[in-house]
């Protein structure tokens, strides 16, 4: 039997923590009450650098960036394929969380592209992002356009 493990699978399971074990029914009830208020049930771990110390669990967001100046549009096609792979992996793991991560499509180097190339990539990205219901933003680090809004 062959198993296909993708790097995204390992990344998606990083934020998972085991449910606490309780010594008594009283502790279990207190934990259930604490879960009703944000952060009351959270006990921040103190430990080695490899210990997850985040305040929120399974709160993910993804920026899928592509090169707007790519003449052939390969960068955009790869971003689309990555988005498809990410959604597929998230749907397969759906039992773990009801929360959906934020996924944004970001076109970079908007200042570098020729007008025709940029127009073609922008139109393709907009149409695709509307179909997939994924926000699309264009950025230019050189001209400082769109960077603050996205990042």
Automatic annotation (TrEMBL):
Coiled coil: none annotated. Pfam families: Ras. InterPro entries: P-loop_NTPase, Small_GTPase. It comes from the Eukaryota. GO terms for molecular function: GTP binding; GTPase activity. This is Uncharacterized protein. It comes from Pyrodinium bahamense. The lineage of its organism: Eukaryota, Sar, Alveolata, Dinophyceae, Gonyaulacales.
